[in-house]
Amino acid sequence: MDRIQRLCRPAPQALNWKAAVPMLGLALACMSIYAEAVAADKVAEQTVHALADFSTCDKPKWPEGAMARKESGTVTLKFLVGADGKFKKSQVQKSSGHQDLDEAARAGIEKCGFKPALKAGKPVESWMQLQYVWVLE
After folding, report:
1. 31 vs 100: CA distance, rounded Å
2. What does the alpha-carbon distance between residue 86 and residue 115 come to, in Å, rounded to a whole number?
3. Relative to the CA of 35, which of 53, 84, 102, 122 has its CA 20 to 30 Å away?
């Protein structure tokens, strides 16, 4: 009966710390490798949007006809910035309600310089959006 009891419920054994230490070290090494891989993936996915360098921009000129008619409004432009930071093309996303004001804003933004968008640290082509408000003072 004593033998059956030992088979069903073996006696507790002392932990062998000498064998556990290398396993613990291996587990920590695996965790650190995983953490570095996750951090690298986050950096690779990170995107920085293109920026306009407004110090290079000329203020759009108010069209004479629009000024005479006392037109004002807000135009929303969408434009493509190349990987080289140069303007490529634009379109009016939302009109000010006055075509000459929209075109003047487009002509003004074409003269700006840009810092290209970055994806995983490399420059890429991307679209930007900008609003220009025409207000009579």
Report:
1. 61
2. 8
3. 122
CA dist 122 and 47 (Å) reads 9
**What is the residue range of 19's domain?**
15-45
Q: Number of structural domains, the chain?
A: 2
Query: Kindly report the CA angle at 104 between 98 and 107, in degrees rounded to 5?
Result: 140
Spatial distance between the Cα atoms of 30 and 23, rounded to a whole number of angstroms: 11
Token pair 């074409």 is found at: 110
Rounded alpha-carbon distances, angstroms, from residue 31 to 24, 25, 26, 46, 82: 11, 10, 9, 23, 40
φ, ψ (nearest 5 deg) of residue 63: -60, 135
pTM of the model: 0.60
The answer to whether residues 128 and 49 touch, using CB atoms and an 8 Å cutoff, is yes
Place of tokens 């033998």: 3
Confidence of residue 76 (pLDDT cuts 50, 70, 90): very high
CA distance 104 to 114: 19
Q: Are residues 106 and 75 in the same domain?
A: yes
